[in-house]
Amino acid sequence: MSRPPILNPQAVPVTGVDTHLPAVPAAALSPAALRQRFGAPPVWQPEIAGDGARFAQREPAAAAVLVPLVMHESGTCLLLTRRTAHLRSHAGQISFPGGRVEPDDGGVVETALRETAEEIGLHRAQIEVIGQLPTYTTVTAFEVTPVVALVRPDFTLTLDAGEVDEAFEVPLDHLMNPAHHQRHTFRWEGGERQFLSMPWRQRDAQGVLREYFIWGATAAMLRNLYRFLSA
Q1: Do residues 95 and 218 touch, judged by C-beta distance below 8 A?
Q2: Dist. CA 167–CA 210, nearest whole Å
Q3: Does the pLDDT value for residue 1 go beyond 60?
C-alpha cells in the first residue's frame, strides 16, 4: 500500500462541514417511509464507492454489515458498535456489526444477520431486512454490502467481549443531517486523503459525557445512505 495508515483520525484537521446540504426530513426517517423508499428506490448514485485505494496484493473478498435502524416511538435510531482495543484491525473504531461472507452463508443478508447475532446477540427475530446499499470497497480489499434493516426496540444485547466493547444508539436524524458531516484532509509526503466524520456525544447511565468518533468506511456508508434518502 502506497499511503500511510491514519492512526489518529480525530487529530486530522477539519477542512469543511456540509452545512449547505439539506437534512433528510424527519418524515422520511419513519419506519413506514424507510420501507417505502427501499421498496421503490429512486435513481441515484452513491457518493463514495470506497476508500480510494487497496492492498494490491490482496484478492477482493465479499463481506456484509448490518445497518440496524431501531424503531423507537420517539424516533428512529442507528445501533452501532465500538470495537475492542486489542483487535488487529480497526481496533477501537465505531462500526456496524458484520464481517466476511462465509461459504455456508448463502449470501450477504445471511452474513449480516449471522455476524450481528454473533457480535452483539441481536437475533433475526427482532430484525426486518428492508434493503441494501451499493457495495463499498475498503482499503483492505473487502467488498462490503450494507444490509439495511428495521429493528424492534424490545431487545437485550449480549456483546462478544472479544470483538465488541460496547453498543450504542445515535438518532438517525442526527446522522442524516450534513451539518454534522465533517470533512477531513490527511496529508503526507506525496499525497493526501479526504474522509468524513460524524461525531456524536451522549451521556451514559452515570451521567458521564461519552464521545464517539464515527469516521472512515462507517461514515462513508452513512453518507451513501444520506444520498439514497435524499434522492
Answers
A1: yes
A2: 12
A3: no
3-state secondary structure of 161: coil
Single-letter residue type at 34: L
Of 151, 175, 168, 196, the C-alpha closest to 80 is: 168
Closest by Cα among 95, 92, 185 to 136: 95
* DSSP calls for 25-53: PGGGGSHHHHHHHHHSPPS---S--B-S-
What are the two backbone dihedrals, phi and then psi, of residue 127, each rounded to the nearest 5 degrees? -115, 135
Place of cell 499511503: 3
Q: Where in the chain does DSSP place strands (E)?
A: 14-17, 61-72, 75-83, 94-95, 98-100, 127-132, 136-137, 142-151, 164-171, 182-188, 191-197, 200-203, 209-212
3 state SS of 74? coil
Query: How confident is the model at residue 54, as a pLDDT?
Result: 62
Query: Would the pLDDT of 152 be above 70?
Result: yes
Which amino acid is present at 153? Answer: P
112-to-120, 138, 161, 215 alpha-carbon distances in Å:
12, 17, 19, 20
pTM: 0.94
